[in-house]
Task: inverse folding
């Protein structure tokens, strides 16, 4: 297997410690964005993998153990969650902040992302708290609070240069996904529609809810449309409602994710940016 190590700030001593642990030489493959190293022909028993995981996490280092022949060009679709993945915020929490209800809504969001609450129920409860809010709050959140996650732009530039299509599939709202699709030149976007009547949020979602099953179905639909298999898709997410679509991907990436998601993903990026997938697939 090929082991890729990445960090924004790791010291050489930490990399040497890991090299000693796995009995392999770490070759510096750094670019100008961050520090990256590669170790070839790595074979680790489960006990050593657990030790590697703990050592890397405590040192602020991301690692990926992948077959050496897996390259970016093997993939034809990148599917991304939006909130806390492509962007740094949970939009619904910031909308709620306009009502002075962010703590209540954020607590429900966190429980849902950890997999402790069924997503449909959690979304309905959170959206209901927004009833009566002026719809202009959505534009304020977009203008004042929405930011791309670290490494999003270089990642998307490389993805597009490789001819890979892009899908933004979110349990969030079309107000934001439509704008991100247009701004970033994404190919597809699918999310929930907030019901607005007379310029006010009604506290309801219009139409079906984009939950874990619908996220998976969306990835499958887009793959079918493109004439590819789901094994040719990279899927990125951070919460429990992303797991269904991540399970069918050729490469699943947990970004700043909850423990339940990190444990099941092919790759976890806890410290570097979204462009951390590029050295892994170089």
Result:
């Amino acid at each position: 297997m090929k082991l890729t190590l990445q960090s924004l700030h790791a010291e050489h001593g930490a990399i040497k410690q890991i090299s000693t642990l796995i009995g392999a030489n770490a070759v510096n493959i750094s670019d100008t964005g961050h520090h990256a190293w590669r170790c070839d022909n790595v074979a680790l028993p489960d006990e050593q993998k657990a030790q590697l995981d703990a050592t890397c996490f405590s040192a602020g280092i991301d690692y990926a153990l992948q077959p050496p022949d897996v390259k970016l060009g093997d993939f034809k679709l990148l599917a991304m969650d939006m909130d806390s993945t492509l962007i740094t915020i949970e939009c619904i929490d910031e909308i709620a902040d306009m009502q002075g209800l962010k703590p209540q809504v954020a607590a429900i969001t966190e429980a849902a992302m950890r997999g402790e609450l069924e997503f449909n129920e959690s979304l309905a409860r959170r959206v209901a708290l927004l009833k009566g809010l002026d719809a202009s709050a959505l534009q304020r959140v977009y203008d004042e609070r929405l930011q791309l996650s670290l490494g999003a732009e270089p990642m998307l530039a490389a993805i597009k240069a490789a001819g890979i299509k892009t899908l933004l599939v979110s349990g969030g709202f079309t107000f934001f996904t439509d704008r991100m699709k247009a701004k970033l030149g994404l190919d597809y976007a699918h999310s929930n529609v907030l019901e607005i009547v007379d310029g006010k949020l009604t506290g309801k979602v219009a139409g079906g809810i984009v939950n874990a099953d619908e996220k998976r179905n969306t990835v499958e639909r887009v793959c079918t449309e493109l004439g590819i298999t789901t094994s040719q898709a990279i899927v990125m997410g951070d919460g429990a409602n992303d797991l269904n679509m991540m399970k069918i991907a050729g490469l699943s990436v947990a970004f700043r994710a909850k423990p339940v998601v990190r444990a099941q993903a092919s790759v976890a990026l806890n410290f570097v940016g979204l462009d951390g997938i590029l050295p892994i697939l170089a």
Observations:
- The two ends are 14 Å apart (CA to CA).
- The CA atoms of residues 113 and 243 lie 10 Å apart.
- The mean pLDDT is 94.
